[in-house]
């Protein structure tokens, strides 16, 4: 499984995998290895007694003794499987106990071999079957494999040394060297599968975490979009309300312009006309002065009305000067 680079987080796949906690990937590893180790235990329970056929060929005189030993190993493995399930022990116990017992069983069998090298070769191949089976089903750290191998090596060497018909000079040429090579191959293969499985689990967890973070960011983006949508709707409502207010003000201005241009303009024009008529009469000096002031005020009022009308038509605010206001007072 490949972990692609996610530009949202600016982090490399290696850094994402390195951030996976040990507890999470170990739990996943336990689930994955548990399937293999349960299968290995059941294969040991069922097949180990069947290998008594090879004992009948290699050690005919003592084969039944070894058969009882094989049956005992199967029963112990079955009991160990039940105990591990009951106590929820790590799956390494499920595979480790039968592997170690069968290895010790095979080492013990060297004690009964005679001086027939054919039987030695056959038993070495029988031992290889166990090693190959372990390489196929066992999934754990190399340290556990090393412990089993060390115990098996010393036990095998002990029983070969105690068998007067066997020696290391006979053991290695008759399948012993190949057995050592297969054992090393088992150690390398189990560790390789272990490393690949751990890497795959870490990558899968890192990708899952990355997807969850992307989903979380998408949810946050959706929430922000909802907020922005609400703001936009509110702005549209405000604009609509403001537009209605402006329309009302424009209508009021239009009405005011009409009033200013017709209803207010007409009395001013009448006042100006009356002033002109009064001027044509015989007036004394004081009256003429008052009429002049009245004429000046009427002209200013007319100018103000005209300026208001023009300002409304242009859309500008009308600003009356203080001098004009004071003149009108």
From TrEMBL:
Catalytic activity field: ATP + protein L-histidine = ADP + protein N-phospho-L-histidine
Coiled-coil intervals: 204-238
Membrane spanning residue stretches: 63-83, 90-108, 128-159, 171-190
Enzyme Commission number: 2.7.13.3
Keywords for the protein's UniProt record, in alphabetical order: Coiled coil, Kinase, Membrane, Transferase, Transmembrane, Transmembrane helix
Enzyme class: transferase
Domain of life: Bacteria
Keyword Coiled coil: yes
Protein name: histidine kinase
Source lineage: Bacteria, Pseudomonadati, Bacteroidota, Cytophagia, Cytophagales
């Amino acid at each position: 499984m490949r972990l692609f680079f996610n530009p949202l987080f600016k982090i490399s796949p290696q850094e994402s995998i390195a951030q996976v906690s040990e507890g999470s990937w170990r739990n996943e590893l336990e689930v994955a290895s548990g399937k293999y180790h349960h299968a290995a235990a059941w294969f040991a329970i069922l097949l180990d007694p069947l290998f008594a056929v090879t004992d009948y060929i290699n050690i005919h005189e003592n084969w039944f003794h070894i058969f009882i030993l094989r049956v005992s190993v199967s029963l112990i493995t079955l009991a160990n499987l039940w105990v591990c399930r009951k106590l929820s022990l790590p799956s390494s116990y499920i595979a480790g106990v039968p592997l170690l017992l069968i290895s010790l069983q095979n080492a013990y069998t060297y004690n009964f071999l005679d001086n027939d090298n054919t039987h030695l070769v056959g038993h070495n191949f029988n031992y290889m079957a166990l090693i190959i089976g372990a390489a196929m089903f066992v999934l754990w750290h190399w340290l556990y494999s090393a412990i089993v191998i060390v115990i098996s090596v010393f036990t095998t060497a002990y029983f070969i040394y105690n068998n007067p018909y066997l020696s290391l000079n006979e053991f290695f040429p008759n399948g012993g060297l190949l057995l050592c090579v297969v054992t090393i191959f088992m150690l390398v293969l189990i560790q390789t599968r272990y490393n690949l499985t751990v890497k795959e689990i870490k990558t899968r967890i890192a990708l899952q975490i990355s997807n969850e973070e992307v989903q979380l960011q998408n949810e946050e983006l959706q929430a922000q979009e909802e907020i922005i949508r609400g703001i936009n709707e509110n702005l549209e409502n405000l604009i609509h309300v403001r537009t209605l207010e402006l329309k009302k003000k424009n209508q009021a201005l239009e009405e005011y312009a009409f009033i200013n241009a017709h209803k207010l303009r007409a009395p001013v024009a009448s006042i100006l006309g009356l002033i002109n008529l009064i001027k044509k009469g015989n007036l004394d000096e004081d009256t003429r002065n008052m009429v002049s002031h009245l004429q000046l005020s009427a002209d200013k009022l007319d100018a103000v009305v005209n300026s208001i009308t023009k300002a409304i038509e242009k859309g500008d605010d009308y600003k009356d000067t203080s001098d004009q206001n004071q003149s009108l007072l």
